[in-house]
């Protein structure tokens, strides 16, 4: 631990300037020089590298003076700054021979690529391929580059005997050897098993450890627990990592030697340690930031091949939801009116999500199907209707209709609060009283879109039908409330029928919902026994709650020999 702390301290100190009390020597580390000697080049074909450095300190007279610890300072800097492997590669003296490396699993890797320049084998031996028993793919194509350079820096030294500080020069003599190969990248396949009953899903990455100035990392998908690198990996030392779909990774193996021409298992097999945890969060209204209660929330695995479970929950009165006993992995949290939220249960066993903003009362398409056997069938749709109900304690905007008429600014209606007018809002209509509007289609004239019109008539009925789409037609589609009474659906479409194809004479036969007193007076305003008017539909509290939760709703109205089906289908939020 003390050694580690010392190296970390050395790392910080050498970022700026060496100040070593033990040696009483001050000099600036020649970073560019060492980087050139011990970090270049950065070729992907660089498979091994080692180097040595000597340091000599001379006084102003040119005499060499012995200062204990100078080489140790340089060596610590080089190992802290420039070495990516988990062991010391720099030798304090050029006469110190390099050692063969033995990995934790017992694999011996001479100079990282099978070439040990201190074992009595010459470079020519390797290039000529004269070494019996060595894989030809390695030995015939490995080549080396030797670099030797000198560098001098100025510094100061405090003489312990005299107590005086004198100028000194520090001479560095560095030597590096880089080992290259020209072998094409090779393949590797394997599997990753979870320690539960599910399949691993994500990516596996092979991060090559040193040497050189750059890490090389290649990755491939893990599907159904299987992975394969196809002509991707260079020979060398690697750390093996597994990446979850949210980018979090865990180390599978800290060090392994990839020698595709040596003895390797047919498949590399790893096991993921997993856990079971909890994912929780809160739903809030996008505009008001109030809790969204009683709304279904679904937890879906981000990768179907993982076979992870799908779970459902309902938000409570505070908008809180919770999923328990969740196997760790990456999921999507899905709920109406909100963007899907990624939930990566990969770092710890409890994941608290940021607030999920829900866009309440999404836009609706309102589909209407009128069906009267032996008479007619009509299918219409009112697009992009805004249907919005306030929460229990939310105030409704008020629209002063008379002030609006007198203002002359008919393009920009506002409420008495000065804000642009938007649903829901209340107003006072002369002769009727207070009216509150909760729903209105995109078209200001409530003009529907025709899906289909067809006559079902017999010889006594009409043979042809059409819907009047003019702006002044008797088309309506809204959700309203009069004088704090029931909230009702007002529907009418301007239907016309023709008896004789030889005469261009159309007869208006409107279809719609009527107030009870009006419906009772007309008895459905039937034509040849087929009702055209239906009783007005008053929404129940349960149906209004569906609108608040942006859920789909269907209403069926029936009369003698005819039906009117109305479907409210929420649109997906952008």
Q: What is this structure's SSE topology?
A:
Layout: H1 2-13, E1 18-20, E2 25-27, H2 31-38, E3 46-58, E4 64-65, H3 70-82, E5 90-91, E6 101-102, E7 108-109, H4 123-128, H5 136-139, E8 143-158, E9 165-180, E10 186-194, E11 202-208, E12 216-222, E13 226-233, E14 236-243, E15 249-258, E16 268-272, E17 276-285, E18 296-301, E19 311-314, E20 320-327, E21 329-334, E22 341-345, E23 350-352, E24 356-358, E25 364-372, E26 376-387, E27 397-399, H6 401-407, E28 425-429, E29 433-440, E30 449-455, E31 464-467, E32 476-482, E33 487-493, E34 495-498, E35 507-508, E36 511-514, H7 516-522, E37 533-535, E38 537-538, H8 541-548, E39 553-559, E40 562-570
Parallel strand pairs: 3-5, 10-16, 17-23, 17-24, 27-28, 36-37
Antiparallel strand pairs: 1-2, 2-8, 3-4, 3-9, 6-7, 8-9, 10-13, 11-12, 11-14, 14-15, 17-20, 18-19, 18-21, 21-22, 25-26, 25-40, 26-29, 26-30, 28-29, 29-32, 31-34, 32-33, 33-36, 33-38, 34-35, 39-40
């Amino acid at each position: 631990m003390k050694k580690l702390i010392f190296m970390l301290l050395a790392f910080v100190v050498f970022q700026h300037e060496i100040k070593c009390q033990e040696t009483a020597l001050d000099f600036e580390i020649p970073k560019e020089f060492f980087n050139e000697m011990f970090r270049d080049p950065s070729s992907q074909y660089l498979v091994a590298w080692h180097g040595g450095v000597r340091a000599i300190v001379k006084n102003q007279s040119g005499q060499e003076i012995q200062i204990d610890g100078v080489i140790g300072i340089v060596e610590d800097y080089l190992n802290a700054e420039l070495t990516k492997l988990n062991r010391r590669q720099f030798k304090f003296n050029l006469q110190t021979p390099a050692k063969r490396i033995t990995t934790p699993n017992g694999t011996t890797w001479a100079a990282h690529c099978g070439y040990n320049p201190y074992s009595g084998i010459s470079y020519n031996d390797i290039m000529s391929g004269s070494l019996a028993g060595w894989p030809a793919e390695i030995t015939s194509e490995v080549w080396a580059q030797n670099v030797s350079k000198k560098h001098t820096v100025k510094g100061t030294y405090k003489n312990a005997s005299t107590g005086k500080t004198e100028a000194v020069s520090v001479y560095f003599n560095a030597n590096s050897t880089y080992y290259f190969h020209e072998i094409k990248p090779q393949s590797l396949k394997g599997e990753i098993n979870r320690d539960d009953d599910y399949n691993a899903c994500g990516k596996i990455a092979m991060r090559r450890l040193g040497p050189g100035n750059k890490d090389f990392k290649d990755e491939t998908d893990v599907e159904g627990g299987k992975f394969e690198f196809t002509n991707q990996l260079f020979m060398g030392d690697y750390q093996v990592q597994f990446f979850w779909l949210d980018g979090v990774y865990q180390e599978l193996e800290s060090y392994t030697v990839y020698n595709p021409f040596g003895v390797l298992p047919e498949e590399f097999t790893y096991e993921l340690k997993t856990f079971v945890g909890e994912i929780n969060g809160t739903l809030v209204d996008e505009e008001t930031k109030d809790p969204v209660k009683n709304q279904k929330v679904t937890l879906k695995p981000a990768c179907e091949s993982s076979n992870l479970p799908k779970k459902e929950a309902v938000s409570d009165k505070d908008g809180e939801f919770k999923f328990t006993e969740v196997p760790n992995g990456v999921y999507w949290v899905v709920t109406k009116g909100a963007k899907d939220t990624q939930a990566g249960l990969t770092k710890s066993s409890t994941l608290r999500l940021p607030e999920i903003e829900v866009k309440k009362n999404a836009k609706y398409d309102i589909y209407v199907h009128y069906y009267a056997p032996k008479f007619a069938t009509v299918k219409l749709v009112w697009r992009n209707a805004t249907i919005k109900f306030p929460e229990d304690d939310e105030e409704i905007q008020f629209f002063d209709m008379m002030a609006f008429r007198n203002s002359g600014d008919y393009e920009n209606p506002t409420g008495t609060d000065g804000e642009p007018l938007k649903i829901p809002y209340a107003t006072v209509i002369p002769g009727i009283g207070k009216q509150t509007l909760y729903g209105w289609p995109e078209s200001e004239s409530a003009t529907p879109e025709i899906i289909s019109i067809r006559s079902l008539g017999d010889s006594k009925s009409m043979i042809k039908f059409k819907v009047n789409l003019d702006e002044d037609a008797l088309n309506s589609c809204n959700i309203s409330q009069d004088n704090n009474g029931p909230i009702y659906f007002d529907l009418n479409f301007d239907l016309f029928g023709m008896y004789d194809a030889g005469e261009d004479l159309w007869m208006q036969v409107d279809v719609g919902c009527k107030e009870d007193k009006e419906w009772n007076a007309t008895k459905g305003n039937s034509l040849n026994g087929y009702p055209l008017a239906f009783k007005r539909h008053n929404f129940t509290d349960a149906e209004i709650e569906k609108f608040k939760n942006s859920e789909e709703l269907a209403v069926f109205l029936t009369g003698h020999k005819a039906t009117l089906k109305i479907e409210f289908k929420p649109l997906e939020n952008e």
